[in-house]
Predict the structure.
Amino acid sequence: MKVLLLNPPYKTELGKFSRASRSPAITKSGTIYNPIWLAYACAYLEKNNQETMLLDSCADQINLEKTLERVKEYNPQLVILDTSTPSIKDDVKCAEEIKKILPKTHICLVGTHPSVLTDEVLNMSDSIDSIARHEYDATVVDLAKTLEEGRELSGVDGISYKSNGKHIHNKDRAYLENLDEIPFVSEIYKKHLNINNYFFSAATLPMVMIMTGRGCPSRCFFCVYPQTFHGHKYRLRSAENVVSEFEWIVENLPEVKSIGIEDDTFTADPERAKEICRMLIKKGINKKVKWWANTRVRTDLELMKLMKKAGCRLIIPGFESGSQEILNNIKKGTKIEQAIEYMKNARKAGLLVHGCFMVGNKGETRETMEQTLRFAMKLNPDSAQFFPLIPYPGTEAFSWAKENGYIKTLDYSKWLQEDGNHECVLNLPNLSSDELVEFCNYARHKFYLRPRYLIYKACQSMTNLDEMKRNFKAFKRLLRFL
């Protein structure tokens, strides 16, 4: 069966919409992630003898008209169409336009939004034939085979669809446990995508993003993927399998300068992280390519040093807040003291840190926001992001905000600004959405335009050509907003 995996266009005239990010947007820094979930599903489909095409209209900046031309030319029998909360109306419109030109093609929507608001999304259009809920690699393979053989959809675990005017929700599909079964996602990137299209301001470029495990044992009340998509159990690829993919990238994508490990928390299993690092060192891969990973602030110095030796250049923690009360309220499970120790250890290990900070959480006040900014400048990571909380459907944050009447609109098309950038949808009792946005803008000014920081970046750029290129590109984008 011919299967098209489509990252549909969204405001392509304004920039590159990063639908695969945890907070999808056309960001201030120009970040755009690989369509990682579509690519993994593509790999699993190809393994199961399905003919595939992966089209990333956002990265290629192909508008709807040109996307439809590509779709019609390929003439698929099944379209797997990715979605996000802020783009859902446009995503459904794309499905409708595909159905007009290919009325017999089965259109299946995927993503966190339809996984949670399944009935609501099914009601949006008759052009939606099915929704593959949650993690969908095996689901879409089963769906493709079922359609190919003319069997009933009732036998496909993990999908929802309409039948005789009713919504049918088949039982959830069990999560994949043996992740080594899935071919390397980097092979899909090489075959289907232009890797130079993807950008993360803290990474050296070109880059690719992989996952070495799925799920996150942490219970942060705002984090969308563990709560709506892949669960809280950290399911792992073997260390051998992960290192083999590093080797494949080095040999087959020699232009790649950094690999992003997009697990929610790569260091959630410290011993397994150490095993991967030791193998990278033993095989000499640490001297051929750099990498980065998401980590918790409980990561210790021993592991950081080993990661650095293994080629890790950058670690990304969610500091979130400078208030312990706020951290407790959002079930972060970390302490202020741990964050301070984490930064000290990162410097000792020689690792760069991209710090994530968030305002608008439960218990937030003007003072706690100022506390967070002071904390960010005290920690002084290599780079930092400041965002208002976005309470995505399916998260505890969404339930809290909705129950208290804090969400100013449930028209998801208004969850981004006209230019595709993040919009704050929270009005707290003591902080308006405008105040939260203004504070984040203020925090970026204060953090990035400090003389101390500018001098540090100038010195960093003068001593490393790759860092100079990265800093110039990131600052060029950011200065438009500063």
Notes: Residues 216 and 264 are 6 Å apart (CA to CA).
